[in-house]
Specification:
single chain, about 200 residues, alpha+beta, 4-stranded antiparallel β-sheet, about 15% helix
């Protein structure tokens, strides 16, 4: 399976990082070793001093597809969940400054905590779902999929023009504003609407 990330998909998040809005989705990959399941703890690595949390709606692909038309994209997933895209911001900034890829800043071990998945049919409109992240009980990020620059169906269709999607692939669809640093001792909790989906302790 693949973990496909989407960058700069919420305008306010783009602004808070002083980035430019792009005309097409920004795509990056995380290896499967980045996955952190079953509310496992995250151990802060020694190679970075600044890891940021990025809460995201995650889509699980349900069947293989390539060159998918946007109008049919909804048929290629039937479950959604929540995930955190941990980003070593210092490594990412260094790579950007040097004009180099930032795979290590996104793809390190444990950098993709993910919740259990629920049927998308539980929600009347997947493009109007609210989600949030708290740290130690304090709300840090809130967002709604209605504010995506590129919709879920557009993202699926776009990716499939270049990369064949397969059953079990996960798409992290972007993060809203409010990203910030995590620290050892923090407890992160992710909510889909009012349902707690994810807990991650930082050790």
């Amino acid at each position: 399976m693949k973990i496909i990330g989407i960058g700069r998909n919420y305008i306010e998040h783009v602004k808070e990082l002083n980035n430019a809005i792009t005309s097409a989705p920004i795509i990056f990959l995380k290896p499967d070793t980045a996955l952190l399941k079953n509310n496992e703890a995250f151990y802060f690595p020694t190679f970075t001093k600044d890891i940021h949390h990025e809460i995201e709606l995650v889509v699980k692909i349900s069947k293989e597809g390539k060159n998918i038309q946007e109008k049919f994209a909804h048929k290629y997933y039937d479950e959604i969940g929540l995930g955190i895209d941990f980003t070593a911001r210092d490594l990412q900034q260094q790579a950007k400054d040097e004009g180099l890829p930032w795979t290590l800043a996104k793809g390190f071990n444990g950098s993709a905590p993910v919740s259990e998945f629920v049927p998308k049919s539980d929600y009347p409109d997947v493009q109007n779902i609210s989600f949030s992240l708290t740290i130690n009980g304090e709300i840090r990020q809130t967002g709604t999929t209605a504010d995506m620059v590129f919709t879920i169906d557009y993202i699926i269709a776009y990716i499939s023009q270049f990369i064949t999607l397969k059953k079990g692939d996960l798409i992290y669809t972007g993060t809203p504003k409010g990203v910030g640093s995590i620290a050892i001792g923090d407890t992160l909790e992710g909510f889909l609407e009012n349902k707690k989906m994810l807990t991650c302790e930082i050790r």
